[in-house]
Design goal:
The chain is mainly α. It has one domain: ABC transporter involved in vitamin B12 uptake, BtuC. Helices cover 83% and strands 0% of the residues. Helix 1 crosses helix 10, helix 3 runs antiparallel to helix 6 and helix 6 packs across helix 10. The N and C termini lie far apart (38 Å).
């Protein structure tokens, strides 16, 4: 581990991984309660359009992906509330349309696009110092929002109607949650890519749900598992010279399976 941390690119990867693991784990708890796994997957794939726009216009792809993901999140909320479309229907439309637009735009750009591949499959080892700062600042803002409205977000996740009659401004809080979740998913793309990012949002929360005895316990365990998964995955990928993203996901899957076994044995 100490040898690994001698390299600046590994230091950046570990810092970014620690930050993103924590915020993804916290939001993952609400995603699991609200059954929004498809939302995160849809936003990740739809963000390909934002990445493509950035590449074609020679802008910073992460910035355009963040901006467009926030727009997509608000469109999903608008379709759900104003047109009463089912959540999975609204997400499915944006998912396929955003990804199709991204593929179409990329096809207009000649030549090999290495940056696109890094977004598709993730490349945590290639994170720059500037990207670490972007991840840190946005994650801090999202964390402050989440902790400030933790009780309201919990009630909103459990029962939107009850949250409304309790005086919570659901028409403001819910779209804000959608936007911040979308931004977090796009930030997570830098670690795992479009294809795998949902795993880091879901697996730690699912693992902690198996073992947690209370909501507070649920949150704390989710963060702990996420940090173990990311740091363990980075270390194993460095040790065996394997691609980091898939190793992180498989590390999480292994811990999830172990937790299932532990729960089954302890309940006997």
């Amino acid at each position: 581990m100490l040898e690994m941390l001698q390299y600046p690119f590994m230091q950046r990867a570990v810092i970014a991984g620690i930050i993103l693991a924590g915020i993804l784990a916290i939001l993952g708890v609400f995603v699991l309660i609200r059954r929004m796994a498809f939302f995160s997957d849809g936003i990740a794939h739809a963000s390909l359009a934002g990445i493509a726009v950035g590449i074609i216009l020679s802008w910073y792809p992460l910035a355009t992906a963040l901006a467009l993901s926030a727009v997509f999140a608000l469109i999903i909320y608008f379709l759900e509330k104003k047109f009463e479309l089912a959540s999975d229907m609204a997400i499915g439309i944006l998912f396929t349309s955003g990804m199709a637009l991204g593929v179409l735009l990329i096809s207009l750009q000649p030549g090999y696009q290495p940056e696109l591949l890094s977004f598709l499959f993730g490349n945590i080892l290639a994170i720059s110092t500037a990207e670490v700062w972007i991840i840190a600042v946005l994650s801090a803002l999202i964390l402050i929002f989440t902790l400030r409205y933790l009780r309201q977000l919990t009630l909103l996740s459990l029962d939107e109607s009850l949250a409304y009659v309790s005086g919570i401004k659901t028409s403001i809080l819910q779209p804000l949650f959608y936007v911040f979740l979308a931004l977090t998913v796009v930030l997570g793309i830098k670690i795992l890519g479009v294809i795998l990012v949902s795993a880091l949002l879901i697996i730690p929360a699912a693992t902690s749900r198996i073992l947690a005895s209370s909501f507070k316990h649920f949150l704390i365990l989710s963060v702990c598992f996420a940090e173990i998964v990311v740091l363990g995955g980075i270390f194993l990928s460095f040790l065996f010279d394997l691609p980091t993203g898939p190793v992180i996901v498989l590390t999480g899957t292994a811990i999830f399976i172990f937790s299932l076994g532990w729960k089954a044995l302890s309940s006997k």
